Every structure is written in structure tokens, then in C-alpha cells.
Batch of 4 targets.
Target 1
Amino acid sequence: MKKWLILPAGFILFLMGCSADKPVDMDAWQREHYGFIIRTSGQMVSKLGDTNVVFIDTRRFTDFEEARIPGAFPADERGGTARLTLAMLDTSKTVVVYCGTSVCDTKLFPVLAEMNFRKVIYLSDGFGGWIYNGFPVERGFPALQ
């Protein structure tokens, strides 16, 4: 009978020991495993107007012209504008990459790494999530600054 009590008690102590570890730093884990941090549009809307944050739109230029996150830069790999746009940006800034969906964003990450961008955030719900949440957009051809 005592053997059967020791086994569950040992298992419970084992589980308690596992939970005593310090929590995982998810930003560090994501950066190490993916090369970027994952955020939603709700987490990033507060960064609009932050001079240390740059939004990069990887959708087709026609979609970018129709509507985009305010202040975003176009970087359509299909149209060849990605490297040109990225070459003009400060690599020390935080770059937030988004698309219309969650698929085409990932094509730009190897280019960002190659060009030495180290603070990269992936907008997991894309421009669709931005619109769905009712966040502000710019429309029309962007003014040159």
C-alpha cells in the first residue's frame, strides 16, 4: 500500500519542481526560433507615429495604394520594390511587417535578415486584422517626404 502512495506523491513533487522554473521570455524565444517577434494589430496600433517603428506593407502596390497602415512603406517582393524600400530605411529601427493575409509576409524575412534588420515584428493578423479592428488607414498614392 505504501508503494502506491509514494509513486503519486513523487509524481506530484516532480510536477511542482517543473513549475518552479522561471517563465519563458517569449520575445527572446520567438526571435531565436523564427528571427522575428509575433504581434497582433491590437498590440501594434499604439506604435503609430513612433519614430523608432516602421511599418512595411508586403502586399501588391495596387493594394498598398488603395489602403494601408498610416506611414507604411511598400515592399512588394513580386514587384521588386522590397530591397529598394529597405535600402532607404534605418536598420536600427523596429520593422513591423504585414500583408493582407499571414502567408506572404514570411517571404520578406530572409531579405530583412540579409540586410541586417534585427528588430523585426510580424503582424500576425495582417492588414485584414487591422481593418477588422477599425484602426486608421491611409488611402491614395503616398506623398513623397
Target 2
Amino acid sequence: MYISHRAPAKMAAKFRRLLPLVALPGSASLGAVYAAEAVKKEETDCGCGKKKKTVGISELPIYDQPTDLEQYTYIEEDVGFLRQHVSKVRQAVWTGLDKMEGTRVYVVDKYRIAEKKTTDGLEYVQSEEGFFPRLGVITLSGLTGLVLGARGGLIKKAVYSTTLAGAAAFLCYPNLYTSVTNYSVSCY
């Protein structure tokens, strides 16, 4: 195992960067202990020959009890005609926007679920081992075309069933359908 001769220098540099982060909280706590000890003494000598009287913690002004409590009363503001009606309109608009946002979230959620299921179903039908599911999709599409064209004549039934069966075949066999279409177009 190789140890670089620069490893101690790198460690010292890292230690120098971390030292202020460690020393700052420690020095703050030492200062607090020193200040608490200074408060206990009644008189201190500042070194200039004069003695000063120290102030206790409870004598500091932030700990004073309020002697004169002011009484506050709530006075309701007079709302004008315009402000009152604008407020009503604003509240109605926000209520409507909140409902629209809830509906939007619901619709987007349902759309994503439907998109995921459709994509999964299409991938299953397009897989190589799915001959019978493909056959079922194409047959069901052709029968749906017959049902949709039931009110019309024979031509309407033929157009609907052929169109839907062709679309289903395109979804199930995209590569084969493209090559057959290209071949049939090139023949003309």
C-alpha cells in the first residue's frame, strides 16, 4: 500500500478549514460561562482604580414586568361599497378557480392512467408471441365496424368494417402493414 508524502499536509489543510467551525461554538459557550461568573460579583475592579457595581441578570431591562398595560379595543373598519363588491367577486372567482384546479388534477390523473393502460395493451398486442390477442383485436374492430354501419346500406357496412379492421391491423402489425402498403402502391 502506497502512502503519499503529501497526505499529512492534506490532512492539516482540512483540519485548518474545520477548526473555525468547531472552535466557534466552543468559544461562545466559554464566553457565556465567563459572563455568568462576572454577574455573581457585587463589585468589580476595572483596573483603573475605581470600583464598579455590576448589574444582576434579573435587573436587566428586558426582564422588567410591564407596569402600565395599555388596553386595546378592536374597531372594525368601514368597508366601502366598491371594496365590498370587489371582495365578493374575488371570493367567487377564487372558489371557481379552486374547483377548476381540482377538476384539472382529476382529469390529468385519469388521462395518465388511460394512457399507461393503452400503451401497455398496445405493447402486449405488438409483442411477437401474441398471435391470438392480435387476431381478437382485428376481429373485434371489424365487428365494431359492422355494428356502426348497421343503419346504412351494404357499402357503409363494408367501409366501416374494412376501415376499422385495417386500422387495427396497422396497430398490431405496423412493419408488415407498411411493407404491404408500399408494395401495393408501387404496383400502380
Target 3
Amino acid sequence: MSTRSYRFGLALGTLVREALRATKHPRTTQPCQAARPRQVPWPEAPLPPAALEQLCRVPAIVRRNGVNLNQWFEANTRENTSTNTLRRGSLNELIASVEPSTDN
């Protein structure tokens, strides 16, 4: 590609770009009114407040199965009776032996 053809293409591209820019008209649009938010009625509570309070206080396992939580706790938990005490191991395996340097 020669310099002359490059400059011709550059000038032609600039001419087309400027012609398109001059012929474009900005769109005149009417500002639209903001839509008013729709008033949605609050749904009524499915249960009375006292029943909702009881649902929050009483666990589901008690409500569904009638489980006594104190008996369930005694039956399903136990005290740790482990007699194994943790002992610290030797660190000799972790520490690399250091030989005295013989530099004079």
C-alpha cells in the first residue's frame, strides 16, 4: 500500500465521518412522566399474633412430635468420659540437627 492510497483513504474516512456527524440530528424526545408506584395492600397475617408468638417460642420437634425436651436431652447426650489425655510428642523429629560449623 502506497503512501498516496493511505492518505486518500484517511481523507475519505474523515470526510465520511464528518458528513455523518453533520447529518445526524439529535432525537427530540418528550420527557416522560415518572410512573407512580402502585399501591399494593399488605396481605393479612395467616395466623393471629398469639399463634405466631408460640411458633417462635416452641421448637418444631415439640410441636410435631410432642417430645419432652428435657427427656430427649438426657437420652441423646452424654458426658465425655474420655480418659485419654493428650501428650505432647517429641520435637526431635521436627527439629533438624544442627552440626557445629568448622569455619575458622
Target 4
Amino acid sequence: MTAFRSNVLPVNLAILGNTRWRWPPSMRSCIISHSKSKVCANVFCGAGRECAVTEKGEPSCLCIEQCKPHKRSVCGSNGKTYRNHCELHRDACLTGLKIQVYHDGHCEEKKTDKAVAASPIVCYLANRNELRSRVIQWLQNEVVPDGWFAKGSNFSDTLLKYFKDYDNGDSQLDSTEFLKFLQHNETAINITSYADEENNRLLRSLCVDALIELSDENTDWKLSFDEFLNCFKPGFNPPERKCALEDETYEDGAETQVECNRCVCACGNWVCTAVTCTDKVPAVEKTEGADQEMTEEEWTRRVAELNKHQETVEKMKVSTKDI
């Protein structure tokens, strides 16, 4: 019996030695979690941040990826209502703004003699980059290395599978198809910057447009597979565009006011509310005819001019670089 075992054991070891093993997802997450808890044991991160392990195995404080879903609304010093304290501090971390808890509960609507529209819901660079990082992480977790008896799938293969699943047959993904692709993994798309779920859904749609704009080379608001792949290439660093106005550039998150409407710089574009002004509110910068109320058509034209000016400034930058 002993001789039989000594003959079989080397054969089994040889088989094991030539086999490429891949830990099951549950065990991989357990190992990663154990490694993280060990590396981050003595690391303290501020509010809205959490300790993560870098590729070099070093601790690093990053913005919290996802807050716990419990609801205890708070009003921020920026006048925005958050689902809980964690969401407030997380938003402060993502936007780089100093936001404090003003009081518990929803923010009260400010009553003023002159109605000024609240800031529009926008997808900031931080929102866009966070969503992109989540999708890349999700796809990388589905990559399967080649095994002994079966061929695996690389990052491109995995992305192509999803592209074919959600393409309607025209070999392109529009914003609706792109959103359906993201909804395949609710965890990846679960961006909750607002207390109101309807606003969060709008935020996700806006971030889809921001992602499409990243790699839409022919500006048709649809992505071919090559454009789709370029959007999620792990080694690609998305550009951080600024907004231009009156020969000045503005950082992401900057705001300006035109009559009773607010405009916010988001992902290199000015995004404005479109409220009909009943009272005259002095603009930040007065121009000829600024004391007259704008019609809807004039307002649309004004917003278009802002973004056209933005495009002109960027083209001038490119021309300067070429020279």
C-alpha cells in the first residue's frame, strides 16, 4: 500500500505543477481583505477617505468608494442635502471642496426676494473618473487567464462580449445602450452623490455622456468598439479639461451666474439651469442689455456661446502647441 502511494504522489504533483490555478472570487476577496487589513492597520484617514493598498503594497488614503446605504439626511454648508454624513464627506473628498455639516435633516429652501436657481445637476470630473474606475475594476475581475485545458479571455475579449450584448446591430453604442451596459453591474454604477434617487439617476446618465465624450473621435455621440475600448483602457489617463469664459479659464466645479440662472463648469463644459426669470437679478458680469430679461431662445443662444467660446479657446491652445 505504501509503495502504491509513493508511485502515485509524484504523478499528481507533476500534474499540479503544470496547471495554472486561479483563486475563486470569494477566496481572492478574502486574501485581498486580509492583506488590506494588515497594511492599513495603523493608518488613519480623514473623514470621507479610506485606506487602500497600492500596487506596491503600500497604504494610501483615497476617497471612500461606496458609503453604507443607511439614510440619515444632513444639510451641507454648500446648501446641498446628503443621504448621510458619509456621503457629505465623500463628496467633499471627490470635489476637493470644504463642506461641513450645517444641520441634521434636509436643507431648507432659501426664501429671498430675488429668486436664484439652484446649481444644476452635473457630472464632475471626479464623478466621471470614479465611474470609469469602477467599470475597469469590474471588467478586470472578469478576465480569465489561459488554463491547462481551456483558453481564457483578456480585457479586450471581455469588453467585446458586452459590446455585442448591448449593440442593437449598428456596431455602435449610443448613450442608451451604454447605460444599459453599465446597469449590468449595479455596484459599478451605484453613484449616490445626492439624497434624491431621481437626481442620482440623472447624474449617472450625465456621466455616461461624459464617458462617451472621452473617446468619441468623430463626435457623433456613439462609440465604435475601438472607441469603446479606448474609453476603458486601464493605462489611459483621461484629460482634465477646464472651462473658458471671457479670456479666462475655470477649474471643474467653478460657478457663474447669468440673471437668475447658474452655470457650472463640469468636464470642460458650461452646464446651466434654464429657469424663466421673473425678477431681475444682477449678473456677475454686466454686459450690454443685461438689465433686460432673456427669452428662452436668447438663453439657449447664450449657453451655446459659452461652450462655443470654450471650443475656440481649446483650438487656439492646440494651434499654439503645434507652432
